[in-house]
Amino acid sequence: ACFRAMATVGPYGEAExxxxxxPLALPSPSVHPAANDDEEAARAAAAAAGDTAANxxxxxxxxxxxxxxxxxxxxxxxxxxxxxxxxxxxxxxTVFKVKDPELTMNRVTLEGLDGDLGTSRHPVSxxxxxxxDVSLRNPNVASFRFDRSETDFYYAGETVGVAYAPEGEVxxxxxxxxxxxxxxxxxxxxxxxxxTDLIFGQGYxxxxxxxxxxxxxxLGIYKRNLDIxxxxxxxxxxxxxxxVQSKSTNCVASVS
Length: 256
Hints:
By secondary structure, the protein is of the alpha+beta class. It has four helices and twelve strands, in the order E-E-H-H-E-E-E-E-E-E-E-H-H-E-E-E. It has helices at 35-56, 61-93, 186-189, 195-200, and strands at 7-9, 15-17, 102-117, 124-138, 144-146, 149-155, 158-165, 168-170, 174-183, 202-218, 222-238, 245-255. Strand 10 (202-218) and strand 11 form a beta hairpin. The radius of gyration is 54 Å and the shape is rod-shaped.
């Protein structure tokens, strides 16, 4: 088909020609995905369907039994570990906790008191044997082993005697009593004694210092070394006409 050209006159008298009209473009064919893309999509869909079917497939009884056994054993192990940990913690804070031993001076007596006339410088000479009754209590669940101990006695700032106790052991939650004996140093106590006091009686104030070192071992796990120190103030009623024993005893002990 032919298109007719049309001419128009412009404002300046020149003829303008319109270009011939172009035909409209024909519609392009539809674009479809390539064949290989379709195949990959189909394979992916099939794989997903296969996985879903496999997941929905029932497990065998053997598999379920093994799984239950593993879960049960794991739960028992965790529970047992927690219970054992709690028990150990409670025992460590209560039963197995190392407690301080208790040292007590029960009484002090003078035995074999003998007063004689001395020299012009010391008119009265006194000889005596001092006997101290000491108790050591162990409140722990394990025994307490202690080394050789020493007790010093003082009168008027002077040492009048030193007593030693052998090493030993105190059983669990028990008490042991020890008797320490020493000879009083007459030359240090005689200057403070006169004949009248010796006959009619007189109170004398003594002080003592005791130190004991030992250790507590609980099942080989809890170990503790202990040092027990005790200071005592003792009042003795001394008389040649009556039994000589402690009138009062006040002690203060510390454990480190």
